[in-house]
Amino acid sequence: MKLEKQWKPSGAIANARYRGVTDLAQYSNFILETVHDMNLLSHLLTGNEKTNTLGHEKEIEDNYISLFNGDVSPASYNSFTASNICKVDRNRPVALPALDQWEKINGCTVSKSGTAYTLTSNGQLDPCGIRTGLFVMPGDVIYIRLKIKTTTSGGVKGFAFGSQNLNNGAGSLKKMDVSVTNDGFFVDYRLYCMSQETVFLNLYVHNQPSVLKAQSIEIQSMECFYANEVPVGVTPLNGELKRDLNEMRETINFLKK
Amino acid sequence: MRPITLRNPNLYKGPSTSEEFNSLRNDIHTDLTTLFEVTNTHEVKIKENMDVLMREQFFMQNRIEKLQRRVLELEAESKAKETGEESRMLRSFYHVEGMKDADPKKPVAIDTVRGLVSPVPTKHQSKLSYLNDKGEYILPHSLEVKVVESNDVQPLDASKQRVYYNIDSQGIEKAVDGNRNTFWVRTSTFPATSGITEVYGIMHIKLPMDILNNVYANTININPYPEYSMTITDIQYKGQGEQWNRIDTYPVQKVSGGSVTPTPIEECGKMVFSFPKREITELKIMFTQPYWFEHESNRVFVYGFQDIEVEYREFTSEEAEFVSSYSIEGTSRRFSSIQEPILGLPVGCPQNIDGCVEHHLYYDPDLTEAFPFGHDISAPIQVVYIKTILRKVGETVPFLKQMELRYTHKEVDE
Fold it and tell me: Is the ipTM of this complex over 0.90?
């Protein structure tokens, strides 16, 4: 949400100026308001150390320098100065077997109806679910999106998906309780791979739930793609951007020879 | 802005009547109010401009990062191919270094922003905005522009079609105002838990039919914002009838059953669609934004347009020429044979340009004598010149994006 700071002259809310000055107090007020407004305007334009206001002059200068040389941080903006740019690369699906071909863990049963799979636990053993192996490389980002639904009375407790042993056993799971809904809804998660290894992808009907009970969850759809994430920030033209371009140019010149 | 207080005749003599005193006071107040308005406008503008620059820069970093990876791949490929004798050189038109006019009477249009070369249009007429004598763009009242949005978790309707919802299109005229310094930007923010990974949009433009002399158009310029982020998925137009048609030069792919589907143009930069003249009364640009920013537990999708232009450009059938030079100076090699250049054509422009382009090979900068392509060169030549002739054939106007020169080389003293 964008918050606009609207500066207003104080005279607008003081006395009824179109009726003219009627006494000395009003005249004094008018002079004080005018002086105040001019003072405020000068602070807005050139800054005020006391109120930690940079002023437009400095803001313009700092914004310019931050983009050109990077010697200072950007001074005035609405959005953010650093973030991650994310994209699911739908041209690079992760090859996975159908869910009923995954290895069952602790008595999980998988049934198929149309394009949906229902994972059911009898509530005896935890964690209960399915898993399949996947070879990953450092830097891989695996994006998983599920459309899920449950009809288990009271909902599903401790539903989890992700990888139990990613990054040398550290694991990365998204855990949640799933309420009963009329329609399926989407949940997604990203796995950040840091080493070359074969890991398990897991879908758990429950994993350390608050209440262990028989429950089932319907996976209406599952998408799994590689994703890209690039950290970005305000980068000066005269610094990194030109350096990166020059480096590429050197490499291209070398390739041409 | 000029303060109205300065208009007061008694400014330097002091107020002489009650009326003048009151007038001066009102003027001072009006001036102060105006100054505050200007200050507020500046404050908003400083932030908006910085936002535009920062987001554009973010996607430029993303693009550079991708190019760096691609260069590394090419480096590896090049090492693997080092035994091959044939080499290649690429001429793009993002700069004019090593290019000159062959004949000043037959100039070409070089668009270094989009990296294109084409014959010079003799006339072009905008269908959306008008340029007045002061150089300002005027938008007709009857021009209608609207954007609808959807996303990839939005339920489909009964016929399995995507459901779009209306969005706040305030400032949408900035996308079609012909001014490259103004942007229409939409920021769609969703919770990180929403599962949304792509936002879809349709921009619907209804041309101002009441003031157009004719409804013919043959060129559409699209400058998306942020550049290199959005995917254009289709462009369709409506003529005088009710039928929607795809722009002739929009890339398509054949699917089973013989039908065609539009090919998405990913990470779209500034584009030109040049096509045979068509009656256009309405236009639909379909696009998606598959990139998002992760920010404070939100997914922030930013998309918009710097400029969209619908034009009728007139080209004559006269030839246009330019000369480009190719050099291996600075090495110990010389050219031993040159093949006819292979053309790279821009997406969105005619792909079949038979008869529209001709090349001639020269060994000297004065273009004294043309030599055939493919023959052995025995002289120690390190620079060659290629004259390229462009001409309109029928309705087809050639647009070039790249020229690839294949050559063999020997050592100079061989």
Answer: no
Please tell me the distance from the alpha carbon of residue A65 to that of residue A58, in angstroms, as a whole number: 10
Q: What was the pLDDT predicted at B216?
A: 93
Query: Which residues of chain A lie closer than 8 angstroms to B59, CB-CB?
Result: 85
> What does A60-106 look like in DSSP terms, one character per residue?
HHHHHHHHHT-SS-----SS-SEEEEEEEEEEEE-----GGGSEEET
Q: How far apart are CA B355 and CA B90, in angstroms?
A: 22
- Look at residue B283 and tell me if it is in a domain: yes
Residues B86 and B214 in one domain: no
User: pLDDT digit string (tens) for B69-102?
Assistant: 888 888 777 766 655 567 888 888 888 888 888 8
B116 within a domain of the structure (yes/no):
no
Give residues 19 to 38 of A whose Cβ lies within 8 Å of B: 20-21, 30, 34, 37-38
Nearest to A204 by CA among A241, A171, A145, A163: A163
* Share above pLDDT 70 across residues of chain B, in percent, rounded to a whole number: 94
Tell me: do B289 and B337 sit in the same domain.
no
φ, ψ at B184 (rounded to 5°): -105, 120
Interchain contact B62–A (C-beta under 8 A): yes
The shortest CB-CB distance from A86 to any of B64, B65, B291 is to: B291
- Indicate which CATH number applies to the domain containing B231: 2.60.120.260
Nearest to B68 among A145, A248, A255 (CB): A248
Q: How far is CA B87 from CA A181, A205, B378, in A?
A: 63, 59, 17
Closest Cα in chain B, distance from residue A135 (Å): 22
The reported pLDDT for the residue numbered B170 is 86
- Domain total in chain B: 3
- Residue B62 and residue A85: Cβ atoms within 8 Å? yes
Same domain for B257 and B355?
no
Determine whether the interchain pair A77/B78 forms a contact, defined as Cβ–Cβ distance below 8 Å: no
B18 touches A: beta carbon within 8 Å: yes
Q: How far is A228 from chain B (nearest CA, A)?
A: 9
Q: Mark which of B294, B315, B336 sits at the end of a domain.
A: B315
> Do A251 and B71 make contact, defined as CB atoms within 8 angstroms?
yes
Q: Note whether residue B302 is domain-resident.
A: yes
Question: Which residue range is the domain that position B139 belongs to?
Answer: 121-315
Residue B222 to residue B274: CA distance in whole angstroms: 11
B122 in A contact zone (CB under 8 Å): no
